[in-house]
Design a protein that fits this description.
- By secondary structure, the protein is of the alpha+beta class.
- The protein has one domain: Alpha-Beta Plaits, CATH 3.30.70.100.
- It is built from 4 helices and 4 strands.
- Strands 2-3-1-4 form a 4-stranded antiparallel sheet.
- The radius of gyration is 16 Å and the shape is globular.
Length: about 120
Amino acid sequence: MAQAEGEAVMIHAMVRMVLPVERLSEVMTILSPIAERTRAERGCLGCYLYRDAMEEAVLTFEGTWASEADLERHLRSEEYRQLLLVMELAKVPPEVRFDSVSRSTGLETIQQARG
């Protein structure tokens, strides 16, 4: 599906890391304030740090950005540099994804599907 000129596109950014269990507490102490500061950045629509309930040593750092320019500014920030340093602690190469989102819906989609 092609994007119409001038159409707003959000960017969803995700970093999933498998970390040494003994470093989890330290990493959460580092990343929690980074997520909090990132939420205050211009163009940030949300930023969250998740610990996987099924895999103890897995953390996911996610953010949603209003535009590609906002994301690029964030990628050059001190907060992202700190995230990059934490990624070096991962036991295996982290999964990093940037997804363009042209449309987002909520409960109305469930209601419509269920009739």
